[in-house]
Amino acid sequence: MSSGSRGRTDLSWGHCREAPELSVGCKKTKLVCLYCAKVFAGGGINRFKQHLAGAKGEVEQCRKCPPDVRHQMLLNLKGNVETKKRVREMQADFNPFNAQQREHEDMMIRQLEDDGDDDDEEEEDEDVNTKKHMLPSKVAKKKKIQSTSTVKQSTTSYGNLQH
Asked: Is residue 48 part of a domain?
């Protein structure tokens, strides 16, 4: 058996075997269920676990799997879903680009644009350049692109007025 980089820690590895003889010409090793001999060409150990648990809709359930193993796989799948949900919630709380952060950045950009409406164009550019150092680099670059296009439009319209 070939060992993966993360090892074989999942409980469901004890209920299948790898079949390199069936995997000739394939990049991934096929898995064979020890109870019903069904061959899995893809989807990995999680799909095999769904087979043992009898998850509907994803894969055909194993009809020969013992009830205790089925129950154990169901609990394992539910635990994985809950763990992923908790991890996603934690990442959303600590993610600097979550919705709340983007809303704050948009508000700051609107304030920069509103502050510059009353002044001359040169003063607006200086004011924007000074304030954009307070913004994260991603937002500052976006603001720089917007202000550059505004200057180009205003100089074009000013040139048209002189002719």
From this structure: yes
HSE (side-chain half, CA atoms, 13 Å) at 99: 2
**Residue 91 is inside which H or E element, if any?**
helix 67-94
Q: Are residues 90 and 123 in the same domain?
A: no
Structure tokens at 148: 């550059």
Q: Note the maximum CA span of the chain.
A: 88
Tokens of 34: 């020890």
Rg of the chain over all Cα atoms, to the nearest angstrom: 29
pTM over 0.70: no
**Is there a single domain that holds both residue 84 and residue 116?**
no
Which position has the token pair 């040139």?
159
Residue with tokens 């269920």: 33
Last residue within a domain, chosen from 75, 94, 113 = 94
Q: What is the pLDDT of residues 14-65, one digit of tens each?
A: 999 988 887 777 777 889 999 999 999 888 888 999 999 998 877 999 999 9
